[in-house]
Amino acid sequence: MDIGKAFREIMDLIFPPACEACGAVGELGLCSACMQQVTLVEEPYCAQCGQPFDPNVSTPPQLCASCRSDAPHLDGARAVGLHTGPLRHAIISCKFKGRTSVAPFLARLVAERMVAEAEYSWPLPLVEVDALVPVPLHPQRRRWRGFDQAALIVQGLAPAVGKPAWEDCIQRHKPTLPQIGLSPQQRRDNVKNAFVIPDEGLVRGKRLLLVDDVYTTGATGNDAARALKAAGAGEVYLLTVTRAAPDWHPASQITEPPEVPAGNASCSR
Asked: What is the pTM of this model?
């Protein structure tokens, strides 16, 4: 018997599912009204990393400045929406408030983006990948939190898209500081060589899709891709629920409450 599952079911009876943003009872994740406030990542965006371009620019480039100057290990990255507003609230509820029942909702959003990607001008072969790989937490962090949010998303995503979930094919062996508040260069230094591949034969020649909750600078996903490719993986992509709003977007100017709760700063991501 799964005691944790039984406990969650009892709690859902006592406290019915409610929207993580506005509290409307009856909907798990975000209600339809709050979903209308979600800023989806849509074209135009960088063909490589998926960074949104200002739609008011008449002729946006194919690649952003970062991807032009320093080609990432990732073969491509995409996100469902910007990390702001109701969608940010849903991720914080799952990640920092222990609302793991939100994970299936996030997985559904990722599944929809994974399938829809083929309709965009610069499609990535996300539906053709061999396996889904959650970007793992360090064991210390997972023990502290009690779960791995990326793994929970993949567990809901895998059956929805008919792909296997390889939760143990990559491991985070280096404790790192939380990425929140670090500069882009500090983020890259923080996660450099943070991942190892325990079974290189498993990933050799495979096309893999990394899955995570948030894309900020791409440093974490890029180092995970580096480790997988060093082990012989053929192609590595990244799909996240959200990504940081670009500087030109009004959402980047919104000051929102810190995501890391008190007492959490010393735990590694």
From this structure: 0.87
